[in-house]
Amino acid sequence: MTRIRLTLAAGLVALCAPSSALAHPCQVRQRLPDHACTPGAVFPHATKRKICRVGYTRGVRNVPDRVKRLVYRRYGIKRHPRGTYEMDHLIPLELGGSNKIINLFPEAALPRPGFHEKDVLENSLHASVCDGSMKLRTAQHLIATNWLKTYNALVR
Q1: How is the chain split into domains, by residue range?
Q2: pTM (predicted TM-score)
Q3: Cα–Cα distance, 99 to 67 (Å, whole number)
Q4: Would you call 38 exposed, middle or buried from its count of C-beta atoms within 10 A (0-12, 13-18, 19+)?
Q5: Treating both helix axes as pointing N-terminal to C-terminal, what angle do 115-130 and 136-154 enclose, rounded to 10 degrees?
Q6: Bridge partner residues of 28 (DSSP)
Q7: Is the CB of residue 129 less than 8 Å from the CB of residue 51?
Q8: Average pLDDT for residues 136-145, to the nearest whole number?
Q9: What is the pLDDT of residues 87-103, one digit of tens each?
Protein backbone atom coordinates (compact mmCIF):
# COMPACT_ATOMS: atom_id res chain seq x y z
CA MET A 1 0.00 0.00 0.00
CA THR A 2 2.80 2.43 0.89
CA ARG A 3 4.62 1.68 -2.37
CA ILE A 4 1.47 2.52 -4.39
CA ARG A 5 1.05 5.83 -2.55
CA LEU A 6 4.68 6.79 -3.15
CA THR A 7 4.42 5.93 -6.83
CA LEU A 8 1.20 7.92 -7.14
CA ALA A 9 2.73 10.86 -5.27
CA ALA A 10 5.80 10.81 -7.52
CA GLY A 11 3.52 10.72 -10.56
CA LEU A 12 1.57 13.75 -9.31
CA VAL A 13 4.78 15.68 -8.70
CA ALA A 14 5.89 14.83 -12.24
CA LEU A 15 2.53 15.98 -13.63
CA CYS A 16 2.82 19.31 -11.80
CA ALA A 17 6.34 20.06 -13.02
CA PRO A 18 6.70 21.90 -16.34
CA SER A 19 7.38 19.41 -19.13
CA SER A 20 10.39 21.40 -20.33
CA ALA A 21 12.00 21.12 -16.89
CA LEU A 22 11.55 17.35 -16.92
CA ALA A 23 12.61 16.89 -20.52
CA HIS A 24 15.74 19.04 -20.62
CA PRO A 25 16.55 21.49 -17.85
CA CYS A 26 19.82 22.61 -19.49
CA GLN A 27 20.31 24.71 -22.61
CA VAL A 28 23.29 25.77 -24.69
CA ARG A 29 23.11 29.53 -25.21
CA GLN A 30 25.17 31.09 -27.99
CA ARG A 31 27.38 27.98 -28.05
CA LEU A 32 28.09 28.27 -24.32
CA PRO A 33 26.95 25.62 -21.84
CA ASP A 34 24.28 26.35 -19.26
CA HIS A 35 26.35 27.44 -16.27
CA ALA A 36 23.66 26.24 -13.86
CA CYS A 37 24.17 22.71 -15.25
CA THR A 38 27.81 22.92 -16.32
CA PRO A 39 29.77 25.35 -14.13
CA GLY A 40 32.98 23.40 -14.69
CA ALA A 41 35.10 21.32 -12.32
CA VAL A 42 38.76 20.44 -11.95
CA PHE A 43 40.67 17.55 -10.48
CA PRO A 44 41.96 18.80 -7.11
CA HIS A 45 45.32 17.11 -7.72
CA ALA A 46 45.90 18.72 -11.13
CA THR A 47 49.03 20.84 -11.21
CA LYS A 48 51.06 22.40 -14.00
CA ARG A 49 53.71 19.71 -13.57
CA LYS A 50 51.13 16.92 -13.93
CA ILE A 51 49.07 18.30 -16.83
CA CYS A 52 52.16 19.17 -18.86
CA ARG A 53 53.40 15.58 -18.74
CA VAL A 54 52.97 13.76 -22.07
CA GLY A 55 50.11 11.25 -21.77
CA TYR A 56 48.40 12.96 -18.81
CA THR A 57 44.93 13.05 -20.41
CA ARG A 58 45.05 9.36 -21.36
CA GLY A 59 45.44 8.53 -17.69
CA VAL A 60 42.50 10.63 -16.49
CA ARG A 61 39.95 10.44 -19.32
CA ASN A 62 36.96 8.43 -18.06
CA VAL A 63 33.43 9.39 -19.06
CA PRO A 64 31.16 6.34 -19.28
CA ASP A 65 28.64 6.19 -22.14
CA ARG A 66 25.75 6.25 -19.63
CA VAL A 67 26.99 9.62 -18.33
CA LYS A 68 27.33 10.97 -21.88
CA ARG A 69 23.75 9.88 -22.65
CA LEU A 70 22.51 11.57 -19.48
CA VAL A 71 24.23 14.85 -20.40
CA TYR A 72 22.74 14.74 -23.91
CA ARG A 73 19.29 14.14 -22.39
CA ARG A 74 19.72 16.97 -19.86
CA TYR A 75 20.45 19.31 -22.78
CA GLY A 76 17.49 18.02 -24.79
CA ILE A 77 19.51 16.34 -27.55
CA LYS A 78 17.80 13.13 -28.60
CA ARG A 79 19.80 12.29 -31.72
CA HIS A 80 23.19 13.44 -32.80
CA PRO A 81 24.68 12.07 -36.02
CA ARG A 82 28.41 11.43 -35.80
CA GLY A 83 30.39 14.64 -36.09
CA THR A 84 27.56 17.03 -35.19
CA TYR A 85 28.26 17.05 -31.43
CA GLU A 86 31.09 16.15 -29.12
CA MET A 87 30.74 15.42 -25.43
CA ASP A 88 33.10 18.08 -24.21
CA HIS A 89 34.74 18.99 -20.93
CA LEU A 90 34.09 22.69 -20.26
CA ILE A 91 37.45 22.86 -18.51
CA PRO A 92 39.44 20.44 -20.66
CA LEU A 93 41.39 17.53 -19.25
CA GLU A 94 44.62 19.09 -20.51
CA LEU A 95 43.95 22.03 -18.17
CA GLY A 96 43.12 19.81 -15.20
CA GLY A 97 39.38 19.56 -15.91
CA SER A 98 37.39 16.81 -14.25
CA ASN A 99 35.20 14.05 -15.69
CA LYS A 100 32.35 15.07 -13.33
CA ILE A 101 28.98 15.65 -14.97
CA ILE A 102 29.14 19.33 -13.94
CA ASN A 103 32.10 19.73 -16.30
CA LEU A 104 30.45 18.09 -19.33
CA PHE A 105 28.26 19.49 -22.09
CA PRO A 106 27.29 18.56 -25.65
CA GLU A 107 29.19 20.90 -27.92
CA ALA A 108 28.15 21.37 -31.53
CA ALA A 109 30.54 21.49 -34.47
CA LEU A 110 28.42 24.16 -36.17
CA PRO A 111 27.99 27.08 -36.22
CA ARG A 112 31.62 28.02 -35.99
CA PRO A 113 33.37 28.50 -33.74
CA GLY A 114 32.34 25.08 -32.52
CA PHE A 115 34.05 22.13 -30.90
CA HIS A 116 36.92 22.05 -33.42
CA GLU A 117 37.78 25.66 -32.63
CA LYS A 118 37.44 25.09 -28.87
CA ASP A 119 39.98 22.27 -29.27
CA VAL A 120 42.39 24.78 -30.84
CA LEU A 121 41.85 27.13 -27.88
CA GLU A 122 42.39 24.27 -25.41
CA ASN A 123 45.71 23.41 -27.06
CA SER A 124 46.78 27.06 -27.08
CA LEU A 125 45.96 27.53 -23.38
CA HIS A 126 47.70 24.26 -22.51
CA ALA A 127 50.83 25.41 -24.34
CA SER A 128 50.71 28.76 -22.54
CA VAL A 129 50.43 27.07 -19.15
CA CYS A 130 53.22 24.62 -19.92
CA ASP A 131 55.61 27.29 -21.23
CA GLY A 132 54.96 29.39 -18.13
CA SER A 133 53.33 32.36 -19.86
CA MET A 134 49.97 31.72 -18.14
CA LYS A 135 48.98 30.36 -14.74
CA LEU A 136 46.92 27.16 -14.74
CA ARG A 137 44.11 28.72 -12.66
CA THR A 138 43.94 31.67 -15.09
CA ALA A 139 43.54 29.34 -18.08
CA GLN A 140 40.87 27.33 -16.24
CA HIS A 141 38.97 30.50 -15.37
CA LEU A 142 39.15 31.91 -18.91
CA ILE A 143 37.80 28.80 -20.58
CA ALA A 144 35.13 28.11 -17.93
CA THR A 145 33.81 31.67 -17.88
CA ASN A 146 33.39 32.23 -21.62
CA TRP A 147 35.40 30.11 -24.00
CA LEU A 148 34.08 32.01 -27.05
CA LYS A 149 35.31 35.36 -25.75
CA THR A 150 38.66 33.79 -24.92
CA TYR A 151 38.86 32.14 -28.36
CA ASN A 152 38.13 35.45 -30.10
CA ALA A 153 40.73 37.27 -27.99
CA LEU A 154 43.56 34.74 -28.09
CA VAL A 155 43.21 32.53 -31.15
CA ARG A 156 41.18 34.18 -33.86
Answers
A1: 27-154
A2: 0.84
A3: 10
A4: buried
A5: 130
A6: none
A7: yes
A8: 98
A9: 999 999 999 999 999 99
